[in-house]
Fold each of these.
Amino acid sequence: NLNEQASGICAESYGQYTNHLGACLLTTGPGATNAVTGCAGAWLDSTPALYISGQCKTEQMGQLKGLRIYGAQEVAIVPVVKPITKYAVTVLDPLKIRYHLEKAVYLATHGRRGPVWIDVPLDVQGAHVEEQLLAEFDPASEGLAEKPVVSDAELRTLYELLNQSKRPVILIGHGVIASAQQKAIRKMAEEFQIPVLTTWRAKGVFGDEEPLYMGCPGIPAPRYANYVLQNADFVLILGTRLNPAITAFDEPHFAFMAKKVMVDIEQAEIDKLSIPFALTFANDLKDFIPAMLAQRSLYKPQERADWHAYCTGIKVKYPLEKEAQPYDNEGKTDGYRFAKALSDRSGVSDVFVGSSSGRTCGISHMAYELKQGQDFVTSMGIGSMGWCIPSAISCCFASGKRRTLVLEGDGSLQSNIQELAVINQYQLPLKLFI
């Protein structure tokens, strides 16, 4: 890249696209601080990413002497990024490099995933080591390999609540993708014939055209998605933290007629909500969903023809294109109509990168119709301007240079416009819409 901010964003988006680990190398001082935006995005969206920065020689580190700066372009980056990483360390002992790298990668890719940061002084980079003497990392010895057990008794209670419902809905978030449970969720929805809602970051698990898919609810949303949510009598919430845009800043009235069951990898995300849950599970979905499906003999099929008819009817009654206008007051085409036209001309093999800020956010997240299984990458937590171009670059490379579609705002484009030169240099098949 031509700027480290773009590298930091590329690392996050590569991790998001591959559902594994993105990484980038940064020089000291401003090289490291430039990448903080990408790191913050990875932290907020729980994306595994490894940031490795250079640092001045240990003997010149003012931070070790109580000084603001001593070495050339020195910035104490670890205190800066510690609140937005799962692990951040300056490596002072060359024999600990293996330990720190192994621990960083483990933490980035296990539990609630996220970014990690390794800062390596120049003299440590150049140190000679005997590989057999390098200290190893063992997660079990540090109590990091343990995971909560999914309660069979509570699973039975969950199925009792589901069996009693007449109007059930499953609401899935990015946790389903992070735990690689897309196929399992589809199997569950199809076998139980339960309508599905998704958050924006879980778009693509179901295609917009599929009969069980009812869209993304919340403040910026198609009407039918909110009608389905607010008329449900049971909601199974899987892998979403229920941010205020989804609850409409009114948690007590979120799916107010429904008994709600929430499953999240982090107990604190459940505890923060003022929602009367019937049941909660603090489990990783890669453990919870297989455990739930293993008990699916407890499910008693119900006659829910009226509910399915309602969901299908409301989706037909309130399509998003009805909200669009033929022309706005500048005489230009409506953004929703544009997104519909773009959707009709793209396919499941196209990678789609959606903007998370400004007017393009609604167009790319609400109006663009994803096909089932189509790759969709977006930064929702930080919503930074300048995100889309670097994100598209990394996604294009990660996909094997498949055609990559990008929606970006005119102001946001300026923040990393220099990366157009990178696209040209590598002749990447990007289609950029401003």
Amino acid sequence: GAPTAIDPDALAVFVRVGFFIGADTPFQAIRAVHPPPLPARGLAISRDQAVGAYIDLFRTAIARRLPTAPVVMPLSGGRDSRHILFALRDAGQAPAGCVTVRHFPPRANDDELIARELCARLGIEHRVLPQPRRRAALERRKNAATHLCTDEHAQFVVMADHLRAHSRETYDGIAGDVLSQSTYLRPEVHERFEHGDLAGVAGYVLDGYGTMMAEAALARLLTPRAYRELSRERAVARLTMELARHRQAANPVGSFFLANRTRREIALAPYALMRGVTVYAPYLDRDLYDTLAALPASLLMDRTLHTDVIARAWPRFADVPYERKGLRTQDRGAARSVAGELMRVVLGQRMRGWVRPSVLVPGLAATLLDGSGERLWHTPLLLYLDQIMDVVAAPSAAPRAM
């Protein structure tokens, strides 16, 4: 029953980075719970001490969250889930099975091979979940389940369905990366924080991380009126306000992304899509969190702390690689299916005034012919805008899931 007028400042950020910040939502009349202020704090500790403390505190975090029934656990090719898997096994509570979900093309599935090797060496059953070709339906289900607050997680819809059917409890690696080995922590961004150049940090958040959409692409995709309404100036101003809250943190880059991307976007996978399953989050254990959040940025800048922790604690698995980013694959049938759905959306009544068919239709038509998914980079945003316009047009209705 709340008014459905959109919040242009909030959406100006969202269409560029894919998540909302602070207490923002797509709608002016609806706010999220704002996080408490993050205290300025720093921990004087050596790198070797940090590795040792991480190992010990994580074991305690797992011991506080042992399962009460057989667990099926998501396992990727990254560090966070691997660390959980090893710690559970050491605690005598190895999962009954692990499951890996395939990515949407054109992202390749290095995860699948790595997770399979880990499970084989540990004697744990491993299952791979394929993605249905009807990606648009998954995007709509994800948008409804996450309250129109993220561009990510459609790939986890099938994972959530599987876990609800096979496990009452599971584990999630939320915050492990941002607290201990974040790709967002870069010297040039940290230096801007240190010099008080918050507008410069905002510009880097918008342009430097390969986020949802490049500025030039967004300017071509949106109509001139929509681009003015969701202007870059609005996004920079809103981001600058939020960034100021994190300037005094021991690791301001990590503090910003934890309070915003992790809290407002990443958390929606375990705590919205997986509703109905008890999800344990050991990286948010109070003692582990207090230590990792207080580590100075200088200690984390090489982005290898978590790798070193796992290698020291479990050296016999140090030969198992982590996922290689950037590998590509194709599924031409799936690409044609997505292109057909996007064609309907782009030419539909709801999107008039928001996107430019003259820019989008030629690429979609080409994909219908050759099945190349490389042109479909705008899929999450187009389906998101179509769904949010549906809510604006019919304020008494919930977001369409199908």
